[in-house]
Write a structure and sequence with these properties.
It is a single chain. By secondary structure, the chain is α/β, with parallel strands linked by helices. Helix content is 41%, strand content 11%. It has 18 helices and 14 strands. A six-stranded parallel sheet has the order 2-3-4-5-6-7. It has a six-stranded mixed sheet with strand order 9-14-13-12-10-11, with helices on both faces. It has a two-stranded parallel ribbon with strand order 1-8. Helix 9 links the parallel strand 6 and strand 7. Helix 15 packs parallel to helix 18. It is globular and about 75 Å long. The termini are far apart.
Length: 505
Amino acid sequence: MTTLVRDTSSGSLTRDALAVLQPGFTGTTAPDWLLRRIGEGLMSVGLFGRNISTPGQLAALTARLRAERDDVLVAIDEEGGDVTRLEVHTGSSFPGNLALGAVDDTSLTRAVAAELGRRLAACGVDFNWAPSADVNSDPDNPVIGVRSFGADPELVARHTVAYVEGLQGAGVAACTKHFPGHGDTNVDSHLAMPRVDVDLDTLHARELVPFRAAIAAGSKSVMSAHILLPALDPDRPATLSPQILTGLLRQELGFEGLIVTDGMEMQAIASTYGIERGSVLAIAAGADALCVGGGLADEETVLRLRDALVDAVRTGELSEERLADAAARVRALASWTQAHRARGAQAEPGAASEEGTAPGTGIGLVAARRALRVTGAREPFTGPAHVAAFTPVANIAVGDETPWGVGPELARLLPGTTTGAYASDAAVERVLRDAGERRIVAVVRDAHRHPWMAGALDALLAVRPDTAVVEMGVNQAPPRGAPHIATHGAARVCGVAAAEVLAGA
């Protein structure tokens, strides 16, 4: 167990308040206010797609942050698959968790996580808010879905362990999320407060199984979920619950690492408690670091939260010892990542190269190909196709700026292929008109959750039974199409793998 040492220097209360924040910012260079706050004690910075353009730019950005203090934690929400920040504008070179769970080869999952970790480390990123250890027991879950390894707790547990081992073996701290489990929800906590209404026996037999395994495997961090679990705490969501963060996670499960909150500006917290009040309650409940910056990415937010924590200590609402303990845990993780960076620099001088986020055809594509499940006729297309992408509204975690589908990859293999995007109000007649004489590839995402999408497929297959169907979400609906291809995710490499099958490549 790490000994936690209090910072007793002048202004330690303010430094501790800054140390527990993990804010974001806008732009691809570090703003002056952020550098100034790092100098004053801010220990972490969170990166999102808006902060990344090229591997070289990212490496320069992280180097600039560390010029202010060498042990600053640079965090990112890089799950691979549908949720990518490194490749936000191109789609990920790695399939996501559901694809890896479908293959169910832990050595493959470990290798994918290790390569992702290597790319992160090469660009100076040393803390990844991943993996998702949620058991996706509700197939209608609007926010987890393909981000989960699957619906079986033991499968999720063994792949969570493999992911943690691969990532941390590359010197990047893992953050197992969303504790105590966001899989059995049908509400997105970005938008409202989800509830998981199951008894304690179910929670221990299902939700908590992957987290117990991750803790035993040495996950450096765990992220809390903004969900209400009445069996554990009828009043407060997990992020704000002493019973869940301190009682269950710390005391019962024995986790000694860093407890990080999910984004404090998410509506499950912000609309009920406000981010200042919510942040104080989270630290008091046992959280050590406050993730904020996905939506609020400015200096004012940092100062508001800093001052709220300082004021809470001064009024007695938050104990000074609890804040100091939280800050010390952040510093302990920063020391671990700093030591790994130093060892990596000795072993591989100049490793932070342009290779860091370059699209590759290595382990990620191997995994995506292995994850495919093809049903029905497999006769390849012999000429140009028309790709009809039935496009649902993206959830906030995924975002709508990352491209997905099979169109560009199929066009590369079958020149002359066209693509059209169709929303819930699109008529099938328009798809047929756009396709002309070309065979159709209907691309869907979670068709079982969208009646309009299922209806469009029914109408299309009734007229054009030779239509191929590519499901790039949770493969819950009965397979149909000639053929039906389940990719188990919408990463770029999943589209490459599906296009290869369609073209007979």
